[in-house]
Every structure is written in structure tokens, then in C-alpha cells.
Amino acid sequence: QVQLVESGGGLAQPGGSLTLSCLASGNILMINVMAWYRQAPGKQRELVASINYDKDTNYEESVKGRFTISRDNSNHTVYLQMNNLRPEDTAAYYCKADILKYTGWNDYWGQGTQVTVSS
After folding, report:
1. Is 28 exposed, middle or buried (0-12, 13-18, 19+ CB in 10 A)?
2. Distance CA 109, CA 103 (A)
């Protein structure tokens, strides 16, 4: 059984910072791409940032220069450092990982963590 558990969400003021973490656990042989998505009320879920095993990164345009995705391969953890937060960053943030088990590759999602940016 694979689980992804996010932490680090909460309330931040505009211009503030938060760091999200996502730990994958279970019978994991390898993790390829790890990513953060977000979904605001009434909107579709969107990709925020992704990072592959070699630590190549990709960012949604509105977060470039403000957010940084990183990962610890040995601990199956991905992070999202969010700086200079804006009210429009308010959303539920979800971690996703492409994980190899003995049964093959599958995508797994975390349960989500809420980020609220408000003064």
C-alpha cells in the first residue's frame, strides 16, 4: 500500500511564505516524476510544479520565480517552497507521484493540504 501524505499548509499573508512537504511511503521501488497540483474552489485542478528523478523541474507560469520544487530521493519526499504568496495562490494543494512497485508503475495522489493567502 502506497501513501502520500502532505503537510505544511496553512494561512499566510500576501507576500509571505509557506513550505509544503509530501512524503511517500509503502513498497516503493522507485519514484519518477513528483509534482504539486492545486485546485481552487470552482476551478479545475492545475499543475503547479513538477520534478523528475534527475531533478529537472517544470513550473506553471504564474509561480515561476516565486515557488521552488525540490526532492529528497532517498526519503521519497518532495517539497514546495512558496515565497511572495498572492491571494490567487489560495487553493488545496495536492502531491502526485509516479511510483514503481513490484506490480508496475502507477500514479498516486495525496489527500491535499489547504493554503490560504489573506490579510
Report:
1. middle
2. 18
pLDDT value of position 63: 98
Burial of 102 (0-12, 13-18, 19+ CB in 10 A): exposed
Say if residues 34 and 47 touch (Cβ distance below 8 Å): no
Burial of 111 by CB count in 10 Å (0-12 exposed, 13-18 middle, 19+ buried)?
A: exposed
* pLDDT score, position 13: 98
**What pLDDT score does 15 carry?**
98
pLDDT means per 10 residues in the chain (119 residues)? 95 98 96 98 97 98 98 97 98 97 95 97
